[in-house]
Structures
1.
Amino acid sequence: MAKRVGVEVSIAVADAVKLANADVIPAYPITPQTHIVEHLSDLVANGELDAEFVPVESEHAAMSCCCGSSAAGARTFTSSSSQGLSLMSEILYHPGPMRLPIVMVVANRALAAPISIWNDHQDIMVQRDIGWIQTFAENGQEAFDLTLHAFRVAEDRRVSLPMIVNIDGFTLSHVIEPIEILSQEEVDRFLPSFKPRVRLDVKKPVSMGPVGVPEVYTEAKMAHNEVLKASKKVVVQAWKEFADLFGREYHPVETYRVDDAEALLVTMGSISETAMTAVDAMRDKGEKVGLVRIRLWRPFPGPEFRKAVGKAQVLAVIDRCLPPGAVCGPVGEELRSLFYKVPGAPKIFSFVAGLGGRDVTVERFNEIVSKARAYAKKRPTENYEVIGVREQ
Amino acid sequence: MAISDAIIGWKTLPFGCHVMEPGNSAKFRTGDWRSQHPVTDREKCIKCGMCWIFCPDMAYSQTLEGYYEANMEYCKGCGICAHECPKDAITMVPEEG
Ligand code: SF4
Ligand code: SF4
């Protein structure tokens, strides 16, 4: 049994990358991801990790370099946030269809303007459709575990897709938590070495990333989408194996006190811990409230989510992203589509909260639940509501 | 099967949409959308081979006399050879019609 140590979550993530024995780490520092890549560059510089650390000139270059090194058959890791992730955007769409299993940890942060270094999910929601597998961590232990899990899933030969682990900026990345750091021997049992299906090799030349003429493009997109959807099986299998080896269980969707619940909060990421505290308090008062948390965001685990909701009649979905001009936040939109015309579907109410580092407190969760319950009786005039916004 | 413009199925598409066969670009005749073509003045040509080096489609090959001739099945008419020729021996001539 590995021992639990008090460690900053960013350092634990970097240690996971070291234990995964990454070969190439092209990275550009950006708040609040900086400690992850800083620590990795330390580990490489002092000889603890035998990897190529490439201090690239931008995030665009970071992701380009990742594509090249992954194509060459190297286990590749990078990390980014916010504006940096946006600068990567053009390249982020390449590794999915090209089947390059890059692993990236995104320390989620708001997007400008106004400039904000603080946490929400707008940076990753802009990149929702890049075609990577995506998970969201709730706490430090999960950030460590999901990083190792990401290498395992991404590089599985049935998958061979890039994967992002989302960790909330500051509220996770900069917090010191008790984390069980696995030993090298334990990690080696879970994570085999990377054996790419195809790689750049002068002895066996291939061309990667060619033009897709109209007679091919649709088929290429279809092939990528199908393998992404099918990856869920491997995501779940790898979690099961992780649980068998180390005792910590993970599922695509987690539930908390959902039995007999009438109303459910729906969250992603670290606010789920506060949400659980709020649920406990509401339960103490006799309210039938529970929590559903989405851990696997892409591919979206539809059947698992529907099962988690059970017979609950009201969903209060919290988005940490405000997409201007849209019908509602992306998670709310996803769930409304999922339940569209499903017999007995719950009523879904969409809330936007926790933008640009604003705390989502227990009181806010109470407010959200009581609003959702009221809206279930009397339809609201708007498709979503921004919580805690001041008017004057 | 429904009518489709596709030349390959998504299930049969190579892994990652990679091109697995090296050198198969020779099969694609890139010359058919050319709007101009190079004409070399052999009086001026010094047989330096710069046109051959710079042509992005490797259209040039050397003749027995040592001059360079572009294969019109591959020349796309970009004019790079004419631009790079140190003796201005190459003129780009518009295609007819
Ligand atoms: S015009 Fe362009 S493609 Fe044609 S021979 Fe010259 S360099 Fe090659
Ligand atoms: S670059 Fe000009 S001078 Fe040199 S070989 Fe070609 S045509 Fe002749």
2.
Amino acid sequence: MNSRHRVPALRGVDFGEFVRRRAAAGTLVVQPRMGFDDPRKMRAGLSATKSAAAATVGTVTLDSYTRLRDDAALADALARGRPLNGYPIVAHDRAVTEAMLAGLYGPDFPVQVRHGSAVPQDIFEALVALRLNATEGGPVSYCLPYGRTPLAESVRNWTQCVRRFAELREEGAEPHLETFGGCLMGQLCPPGLLVAVSVLEALFFQQHGVRSVSLSYAQQTHAGQDREAVAALRRLCGELLPAGSWHVVVYAYMGLYPVTVQGAYRLLGAAAELAVRSGAERLIVKTVAESRQIPPIEENVAALEFAAATAARTVRDGRSDAEDSETYQEAAALVHAVLGLGRDLGGALVRAFERGYLDVPYCVHPDNRGRTRSHLDGEGRLRWADPGALPLARHGRTGAARRVTSAELHADLHFVRRAFDGADEERVALTGGSAAVPVQDGLPNGSPEIARAEGS
Amino acid sequence: MVNEPARLPAPRGTVIVSSVASDAHTWNLVLLQLLLEEMGYHVINLGPCVPDALLVEECVLRQPTMVVISSINGHGYADGLRLAPRLRARPELAATPIVIGGKLGVVEDATERDRQSAVLLEAGFDAVFADAHATDLCRYLRSGEPVGQSTGTSVGPSAGQAVPRTVAGAPGRP
Ligand code: B12
């Protein structure tokens, strides 16, 4: 980029400070998942986010070609005017992005870049040049769910990038990083592992010099278990991170989303309640379009305003973060087992996956052992069907390892969608499509156990 | 990242299930794998973000009965359009049934989707399942439209295939 040595036109914003100040005033900050290819539309989206009736921060989500550094495919798509699934921040000239953000991005409206890349060097270069000092990720959570980059390579890339990002502080812009570890594959991961990876990634960020962090937790299948998980996350943060350096961000459900308008709003409302009751400072919303397509601007605004209104009539439930729970015990056991693998956290994370101390259910990445399996219990809580080699000898097991059939996996994937769409939507089968296909078609009971996700 | 369970022998042959180069989603691949296994196929799941060259090499090497491409990130149309001719360029794959499905485009518009499906067929796919159910693939396989056998109907660049067709979900469903 020829503009590399120009004086930056934008100034960084202290993202963590912005959120903590709103939280101190009792306001939940809400944020969309938004990313459009066209800079004009991206600007319109940010502008609408800013003027929504809610305390908001903006989001720029990047497209998959940029995430994977597929410059040829990106150039081809741009040349042909093919729509992208996000904003191509590296391909656009710096001046284009500066103009896109001008007058919107500022102390009253922080903007965070979200991407999902295990090879994020070019992305971080662009962010640093633009003084966009808030982003998201992690060496594990932006690797295992996002492609085939070896974990050790992702750790190296992320180490380098976090260190570079940390230097922004000297340039007057406190850098902020959010973990994606509280989401991982989006669904069917027992909360103990989500909390543990979120905490480990925050420690990794701080080890490499970024002080201001946020820790994610994605809403799962059971409100009580989620409440317990956020408490466990906050307790571990209190134990392991410097006070005042962190906040918690709840993600509205990241798995197969309800297809009805009512179902989508009910689920978003539950996420907003979870955030407020548990003392989380920020919420990332989902919209009624989630099950089908990248949400248009208006649906994002509606979701932000709905979530903010729900949050405003909800109060913190007064339960202490210090409470003991199965999720806390499990997360703490995993975190400490990994910390015991070496002082360099990046290396410890790689070793943890080699040994199966961390092992994400249903993740087919070659560096994930793929020995664990999860399932939903009768009440809708996520449990380990098979804990593999997770160091949970004393905690969290619900009896002997059992096999998960494909029919069960299918039912578990659709549990939240069904529960929130209600009985009248029983005909919704494998997708949000329209054909009235019986749910069990092609998925007979007693079908073979899902195979180990690796092999030759 | 090849998910190839040791389950033998598969009476109906081997199917390669794969994503396209830019797509990281995997739950779709896992479910399709299970459905196909339950129909008696041996499945090799190549996983997410499969570079075109790797996919071509795996297909040439394994000589599958069928190739099932699944993408839901919105780039399936563009990635598939580039991929199909690369697969068809290999003589070993000229007659292999190759289908694609999922959420293939970013724009939700029925007319545009149908246009894209037609273009994908022309590019070399034998069937396109845009916004369709996974079970539509089972139905397609059970419907008697032969997979891996010549019907004598030749449409599009890969002659000797089942009639190319598209299956699409109805538009605009909430
Ligand atoms: C979980 C999820 C994720 C996880 C994925 C983890 C993983 N490794 O799998 C995470 C959080 C990492 C993720 C990331 C992204 N995601 Co995502 N994700 C989802 C979500 C919530 C569920 C998808 C899922 O698990 N489906 C489970 C499978 C079993 O069901 P299915 O998707 O309906 O697939 C069925 C059918 O499509 C059909 N089918 C699929 N393929 C084929 C093939 C054939 C031949 C046939 C017959 C049928 C068929 O059968 C499948 C099985 O039943 C969806 C939204 C939703 N549906 O609620 C978004 C969604 C798919 N994601 C989306 C996007 C854009 C992304 C990102 C690019 C980020 C972004 N810009 O928002 C990145 C991907 C980066 C990349 N390189 O690709 C968009 C796609 C939009 C589009 N197509 O226009 C969606 C729809 C969300 C949205 N509304 O914006 N995502």
